[in-house]
């Protein structure tokens, strides 16, 4: 290209400096579509991360409770008798504990139950109330579905809805 033949278009004419309104609208539309795709993916990732963290915490507390039982030949009456009992779940609530072993008559109505109304544990219940912060003894109830539970005497850790 010969520099002497190069012409600069006048301001305000097509080919001038800047972007046209159409180009800006296309860029904003593409950006909006990318954000609309990214937000649900991030939200799903965050939910999975919170679930994994709650399961990890429940396993830790489960081990501490079992260690307490080995040392004292009985389960703790409250969660405050084990280390890290003040630990909060990913939603900012304290983990819940209910001693069952040796107290079946006292706590029978408070025991967590599956969809067939069978108790999910015979030694103790340990769980997080989940995202909604509400719970019920029946796992398949609306408020119990998002709870993160320990079941089958420590053989299952996960969402109540998947138990």
Walkthrough of the structure:
There is one protein chain. With about 160 residues, this protein is of the alpha+beta class. The chain has helices at about 20-70, 105, and strands at about 95-100, 125-130, 150, 155-160. It has a domain at about 50-160: Glycoprotein, Type 4 Pilin (2-Layer Sandwich). Strands 1-2-3-4 form a 4-stranded antiparallel sheet, with helices on one face. Strand 3 and strand 4 form a beta hairpin. The longest helix has about 50 residues, at about 20-70. The mean pLDDT is about 90.
Keywords for this structure?
4 strands, alpha+beta, 2 helices, 10% strand, elongated, single chain
Provide the gyration radius in Å: 28 Å
Helix content: 25-40%
N-C termini distance:
73 Å
Report the uncertain regions.
none
What characterizes the major β-sheet? Answer: 4 strands, antiparallel
Mean residue pLDDT: 88
Number of helical stretches of at least 4 residues? 2
Give the overall form. elongated
CATH fold-level name of the domain at 51-162: Glycoprotein, Type 4 Pilin
Provide the spatial order of strands within the biggest beta sheet: 1-2-3-4
Count the beta strands.
4
Looking at the overall shape, the CATH architecture of the domain at 51-162 is 2-Layer Sandwich
Q: Which structural category fits the helices and strands?
A: alpha+beta
Q: H/E series, N to C?
A: HEHEEE
CATH class of the domain at 51-162: Alpha Beta
Strand content is: 5-15%
């Amino acid at each position: 290209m010969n520099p002497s033949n190069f012409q600069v278009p006048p301001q305000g004419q097509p080919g001038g400096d800047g972007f046209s309104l159409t180009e800006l609208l296309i860029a904003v539309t593409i950006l909006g579509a990318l954000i609309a795709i990214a937000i649900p993916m991030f939200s799903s990732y965050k939910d999975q991360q919170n679930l994994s963290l709650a399961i990890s915490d429940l396993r830790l507390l489960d081990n501490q409770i079992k260690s307490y039982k080995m040392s004292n030949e009985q389960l703790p009456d409250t969660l405050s008798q084990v280390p890290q009992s003040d630990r909060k779940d990913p939603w900012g609530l304290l983990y819940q504990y209910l001693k069952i072993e040796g107290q079946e008559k006292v706590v029978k109505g408070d025991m967590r139950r599956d969809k067939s109304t069978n108790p999910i544990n015979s030694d103790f219940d340990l769980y997080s109330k989940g995202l909604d912060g509400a719970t019920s003894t029946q796992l398949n109830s609306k408020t119990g579905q998002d709870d993160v539970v320990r079941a089958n005497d420590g053989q299952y850790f996960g969402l109540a809805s998947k138990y």
